[in-house]
Amino acid sequence: MKLTITNYKEATKNIDFKKLPEAAQEAHKEFSSFAEFYNDDKDIKEMLDNHFRIVEPFLKDAPKKASDKKKSTASKKSPKKASQKSESKKTASKSRQKKTATRKATARKKAAPKQIKRKPNEVALMPLEIKIIKRYLSMHGQKVSERQVSLLYKVIQKAATEKTIRKTSKYADEISKIGNDLASTYKQMGSSCTFEIPDALHSKLKNIVDSYGVSPAIALIKRFINLYGNITIQKAQRLLASIKNAKKSGKVSSGDNAYERVNQVQKHLEDYLDCDKLLVTNIQLNGLKGVAGVGK
After folding, report:
1. Torsion angles phi and psi, residue 34, rounded to 5
2. pTM to 2 decimals?
């Protein structure tokens, strides 16, 4: 299996990293710190790609989930007892189904339509300033290492040098304050420290971050892209249900820029469920990646 930023956490959850080289253990601990800037910093990308190559051989040795005990127990039961229990279960099940159906019908009548809350700033790709602010906020109250502090400071310095973030940028003042605080903390700390952000600054930055979100239409397209090459009937059904629910609730509407692309994804999924083949050309896939800002 090839590791990526998207599948890393799920794919490595059963690996005992104590058995891996020390460098791999450290990179694994700080994965979240690095991953956010994978597409923004060539050095971080190179480092993580190398980490993935070290970890990939250990995926085969990761312990598999224990088989379901109920299945093995069921096979030991005598046919007579199983038959009697089966009949009583059927009767009880029918009774429960009737009660459940009545409750659901009542609940539908009472349930008020949900109001969809949209973020003031919906984007396809989260701006670098917001990524930096989010990462800075996530360090609050946490024990952080010199490496984590210097990494975030390095990202800010590089963004300023390459003019990815300019003095005229919307949140230039906030990024400047973050950079100054990181530099000051790094000079005063030892190998690690408990990171604290002043309440007033924390509140201001949190309000900024909370106002941003990935467009629901783009989020659905990204789910499809991540599914590509690893699709199953169950996953396709879940994503198709999500698309239909998003349209029904108004989360995704014809006013969205990516609405037609969502329709395209929906058709791909419906075709796949009909013929068990996902017929998507490279041009179509690249088009979806472009709209979703994947690979930038």
Report:
1. -80, -40
2. 0.63
Helix ranges, 30-171 (H): 31-35, 42-55, 69-76, 79-110, 128-138, 146-161
CA-based nearest residue to 17, from 48, 65, 61: 61
- What are 140's two structure tokens? 């609050």
* Helix and strand counts by DSSP (H, E) for the chain: 14, 4
> How far is Cα 74 from Cα 60, in angstroms, rounded to an integer?
31
Give the phi and the psi of residue 51 in degrees, each rounded to 5: -60, -45
Q: What is the pLDDT of residues 236-250, one digit of tens each?
A: 899 999 999 989 888
Closest CA to 138 of 90, 218, 202, 49: 202
Q: What angle do CA 53, 125, 208 make, to 5 degrees?
A: 115
Q: Are 264 and 284 in contact (CB under 8 A)?
A: yes
8 Å CB contact between 149 and 182? yes
